[in-house]
Specification:
The strands form two sheets. Strands 1-4-3-2-5-8 form a six-stranded mixed beta sheet, with helices on both faces. The chain has a two-stranded antiparallel sheet with strand order 6-7. It has four helices and eight strands; from the N terminus they run H-E-H-E-E-E-H-H-E-E-E-E. The N and C termini lie far apart (49 Å). Helix content is 32%, strand content 30%. The chain is globular.
Length: 124
Amino acid sequence: MSFNFAGVANKAVANSFVREGREQITIEQLAEDYPNGVTITEFDMLKSKDGVFPTFAYAEDVNKYFNGNTSLKSIVDAWLAGFEGDVERCSNELKRSGGVKIRFKQKQRTSNGYWFTPVEVVMR
């Protein structure tokens, strides 16, 4: 049996089960490609120099992932409160439940001058 160098390298740079084997897409591109929204099915929380942020897989394209903004972090934080902060258990339950559909609204500028894309939860 030979060592799978490429597989191990891919896992190391993905740094998340959500990102592993998937290509990144931006929220702006998602909003353009899916004006009716996407169904998030899995998530993970990642650390950066600026804090913690969520990353998501979605049902409409299982080969891609996207990183979350402030609104999406607020949603994930609320979900995690119901799972004692257990990301893996919460993400597994989200996937088992069929996910949550969200739609991205038109980009807006915040009072600080930053651009922000609001998120709408699509109720079924």
